[in-house]
């Protein structure tokens, strides 16, 4: 059972969703909506499914990540109905019906059917969900105007959602502390992942995304996906990007640590952390996120200069010539919610100078964003610069030393408030 406050907030959250969804349905000409929870597809020629987490709009209403083949039926003016798939199956545990206060505000029922409940008296039925689960279901499947309108309902978080994201941060913080200790104790990437899971008490398949745990040069692979079971001879650096899912909501936190004797890397790390904190402090309503991303590049240029990685170029020129992009190829951040890269962040496409930026909005109160600048030594991106006309500006010897540490990313989750921003991550992981 959640705390009484959270319980109250969740009931308000559902009420807000009723209003937001009613408006979206009226505006797009529908009088009923079915939302599929989704189902994990089977692996080809096998009898095992892929790990399952659930479809965003279903999680937005229920927070229930483990329910496959379940349905929500929403009819403005008539409330919402939740059908939970409870098959007669002696191989697996059956899903328990939620019995918390919010669920009592919906009509909840178990069903052995995978087919959805159908509305009576609906003439315009829309259906949202993974097309793999919608075969044979009547109504308009994933109509684009409604998909866009429903995505818009997720941009501004309710108080309940912010409380869940705060808790998701607090629990992940325990994992990050344990991971740092495991790194300093010389554990392998696999050992560090075990320490993280032990501290968070969450298996990785339930976390919002597969953790990224890279030692040494692996820290320079943006979404490094393996775990070496053997520790390297010398652990020079650790980059860990790992979250926690609480009642459907995911935190997304990255920390980078230097091992003993890595003076040059440690200096760069201190500089990047200072820049990251300044960027978090800049979060406020009215801030253009694309402009903040560009400001990050100028900050990185200053850091590359002061660290002696790049010499004899002014900051604007380093950005204009694409040098900072070779060190920081991804975006500054994204919206966060029931999906780690939450929807609704790009009403306009990313600009040509920031092709991987996932958020092109002006910040408004209620948005929750990540702020995650990075600085990496990625051979395939640095090679053309090191071979090009500006090569004399780069300190190859220092780059060789730093390459052994892979890279740095520091990532916090920040709520945009009426006054500025509230950093959910630093509140529990200073
Ligand atoms: N964990 C993926 C990201 O930071 O966007
Ligand atoms: Mn992120
Ligand atoms: Mn991340």
Offer a concise description of the structure:
The protein is α+β, with helices and mostly antiparallel strands and 430 residues long. It contains twelve helices and 16 strands.
Individual helix count: 12
Approximate helicity band: 25-40%
CATH topology of the largest domain: Creatine Amidinohydrolase
Question: What percent strand?
Answer: 15-25%
Overall form: globular
Q: Gap between N and C termini, in Å?
A: 29 Å
Report the average pLDDT across residues: 97
Main β sheet profile: 6 strands, mixed
**Total individual domains:** 2
The CATH class of the largest domain, by name, is: Alpha Beta
Low-confidence spans: none
Task: Report the structural category.
Answer: alpha+beta
> Going by CATH, what is the homologous superfamily of the largest domain?
Creatinase/methionine aminopeptidase superfamily
Please state the CA-atom Rg, rounded to the nearest Å: 23 Å
Would you identify the CATH architecture of the largest domain?
Alpha-Beta Complex
What does this structure look like?
The chain has 2 domains: 3-152, Creatinase/prolidase N-terminal domain (Creatine Amidinohydrolase, Chain A, domain 1); 159-423, Creatine Amidinohydrolase. Helix content is 34%, strand content 15%. The relative contact order is 0.12. The model has no long low-confidence stretch (mean pLDDT 97). It has a 6-stranded mixed beta sheet with strand order 4-3-2-1-5-6, covered by helices on one side. A 3-stranded antiparallel beta sheet has the order 7-8-11. A 3-stranded antiparallel beta sheet has the order 12-15-16. The protein has helices at residues 4-28, 56-62, 101-104, 144-152, 159-184, 189-200, 263-281, 289-306, 315-320, 323-327, 379-387, 396-403; strands spanning 32-36, 71-75, 79-85, 107-111, 125-128, 140-141, 212-215, 237-242, 245-246, 249-250, 253-258, 368-371, 374-376, 407-409, 412-416, 421-423. The chain is globular and about 75 Å long. Helix 7 runs antiparallel to helix 8. It is of the alpha+beta class and 430 residues long. One manganese (II) ion (MN) is lined by residues 241, 252, 254, 411. Splits dipeptides with a prolyl residue in the C-terminal position. Mn(2+) 2 binds at residues 241, 252, 411. One of its GO terms (biological process) is proteolysis. This is Xaa-Pro dipeptidase.
């Amino acid at each position: 059972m959640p705390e009484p406050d959270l319980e109250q907030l969740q009931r308000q959250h559902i009420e807000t969703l009723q209003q937001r969804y009613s408006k979206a349905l009226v505006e797009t000409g529908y009088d009923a909506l079915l939302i599929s929870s989704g189902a994990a597809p089977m692996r080809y020629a096998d009898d095992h499914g892929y790990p399952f987490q659930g479809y965003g709009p279903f999680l937005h209403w229920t927070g229930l990540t483990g329910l496959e083949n379940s349905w929500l039926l929403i009819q403005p003016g008539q409330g919402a109905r939740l059908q939970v798939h409870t098959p007669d199956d002696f191989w697996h545990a059956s899903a328990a019906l939620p019995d918390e206060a919010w669920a009592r505000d919906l009509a909840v029922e178990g069903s052995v059917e995978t087919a959805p409940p159908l509305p009576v008296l609906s003439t315009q039925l829309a259906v949202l969900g993974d097309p793999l689960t919608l075969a044979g279901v009547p109504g308009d499947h994933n109509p684009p105007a409604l998909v866009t309108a429903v995505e818009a309902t997720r941009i501004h978080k309710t108080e309940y959602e912010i409380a869940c994201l705060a808790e998701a941060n607090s629990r992940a913080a325990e994992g990050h502390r344990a991971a740092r200790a495991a790194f300093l104790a010389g554990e392998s990437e696999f050992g560090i992942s075990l320490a993280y899971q032990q501290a968070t008490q969450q298996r990785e398949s339930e976390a919002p995304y597969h953790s990224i745990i890279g030692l040494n040069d692996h820290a320079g692979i943006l979404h490094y996906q393996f775990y070496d079971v053997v520790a390297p001879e010398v652990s020079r650096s650790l980059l860990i990007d790992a979250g926690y899912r609480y009642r459907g909501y995911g935190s997304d936190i990255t920390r980078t640590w230097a091992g003993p004797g890595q003076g040059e890397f440690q200096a760069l790390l201190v500089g990047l952390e200072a820049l990251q904190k300044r960027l978090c402090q800049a979060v406020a309503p009215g801030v253009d996120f694309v402009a903040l991303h560009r400001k990050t590049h100028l900050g990185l240029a200053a850091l590359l200069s002061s660290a002696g990685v790049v010499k004899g170029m002014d900051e604007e020129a380093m950005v204009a010539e694409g040098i900072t992009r070779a060190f920081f190829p991804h975006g500054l951040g994204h919206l966060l919610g029931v999906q780690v890269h939450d929807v609704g962040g790009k009403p306009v496409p990313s600009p040509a100078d920031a092709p991987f930026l996932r958020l092109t909005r002006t910040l408004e109160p209620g948005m929750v964003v990540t702020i995650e600048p990075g600085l990496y030594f990625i051979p395939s991106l640095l090679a053309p610069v090191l071979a090009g006309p500006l090569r004399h500006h780069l300190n190859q010897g220092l780059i060789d030393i730093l390459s052994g540490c892979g890279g740095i990313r520091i990532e916090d989750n920040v709520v945009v408030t009426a006054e500025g921003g509230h950093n959910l991550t630093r509140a529990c992981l200073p």
